[in-house]
Amino acid sequence: MFSKDTQMSHAKMLAVAAVCIALAFLLNQVTIFRMPMGGSVTPMSMLFVVLAGYWLGPVYGIIAGISLGLLTTITGAFIIHPAQYALDYLLAYGALGIAGFFRKMKFGLIVGYIAGVAGRWVMVFLSGLLFFYMYAPEGQHAAIYSAVYNLNYIAPEMIVTLVIISLPTMKHAINIVTKNVVPPAVYEQMTAANAGSISTTARIATGAVIGTLGGLAFVFAGHLRRIEDLTITQVVTDAMIFYDAPRADRIYRLVERNTEHLFAFQTAGVIFIAIAAALLISTITPRTAEQ
User: Which domain holds residue 44?
Assistant: First the structure.
């Protein structure tokens, strides 16, 4: 079941996996923001399941994710159907372990983290589409509702984690642990895959473009906010005064749509600014700090 290039004993692999599960579970209990129908932003709890896959391979990573899903059930899970439970907890957390498939690729941890989080999002998206479609606002497709709802708590944690693990100090710390955890042959393969780096000029240029897009997103969000304020004023001073219920209803629907678009632009702005910041920060630290 396990590749022969992994000379680590099963006992050591289980011990490392257990530590990753324990840290992920503890961080998962620290809620920064909780969504009303399930899902929350935590301080990088997904990272340690991804690290289990990165250090031990996809099999142990997936097992670690499923184990985290089972532990999460004990502390309180939002369950309305067995299939929904499997999607939201077992398969969603288990999907984080697929990061192990990318550990010997260039930028393996970052690519693996994005792939694992994307896998989790797909699972919770399917859960929302199949079991929570009735909560979608009137006029909004259930698929859009599920996609946006689940991005609300997955995207912020993903962005913050990517920024942190891109910092040279954090990369150096993870590299030290990796060197002591994985077998030497595997570590050499992982190191060789990550030899070299993107040029400073390319990172600055990319960061500037992405940062500009983030700024434009906030500009559009501000424009929508002004439109929304004017619309709400119109409801209060016009339609409601004359008890024009149909007109008030139409205006409320307009406000609802503007709110959705406003949130979309704000989310995009945060994502672009965070990525740009990570790229620009990586250019001001000497490369020797990563060695």
Answer: 10-185
pTM of the predicted structure, to 2 decimals:
0.70
Cβ neighbors of 54 (< 8 A, separation 6 or more) are: 61, 99, 100, 103, 108, 109, 112, 178
pLDDT at residue 1, rounded to an integer: 42
Residue type, 246: P
pLDDT tens for residues 177-196? 888 888 888 888 887 766 55
Residues 180 and 241 in one domain: no
Domain count, the chain: 2
Q: Residues 180, 209: one domain?
A: no
CA geometry: angle at 127 spanning 125 and 133, to 5°?
90
Same domain for 60 and 176, yes or no, is yes
The pLDDT value recorded for residue 209 is 79
Tally Cβ neighbours within 10 Å of residue 51. 30
Are 161 and 231 in the same domain?
A: no
CB neighbours (10 Å) of residue 182?
23
Counted residue by residue, the chain has a size of 291
Report the mean per-residue pLDDT for the chain: 79
Identify whether 19 is part of a domain.
yes
Give the CA angle between residues 103, 124, 128 to the nearest 5°.
165
The pLDDT confidence band at residue 54, using thresholds 50, 70 and 90, is: very high
Closest CA to 285 of 178, 170, 186: 170
What residues are paired with 41 via a beta bridge?
Answer: 33
pLDDT digits (tens, 9 = 90+) for 72-99: 888 877 888 889 999 999 999 999 999 9
Which residue, among 128, 124, 117, has the nearest Cα to 44 in the 3D structure?
117
Reported confidence tier of residue 290, pLDDT bands at 50, 70, 90: very low
Backbone angles phi, psi at 40, to 5 degrees: -150, 160
Same domain, 171 and 33: yes
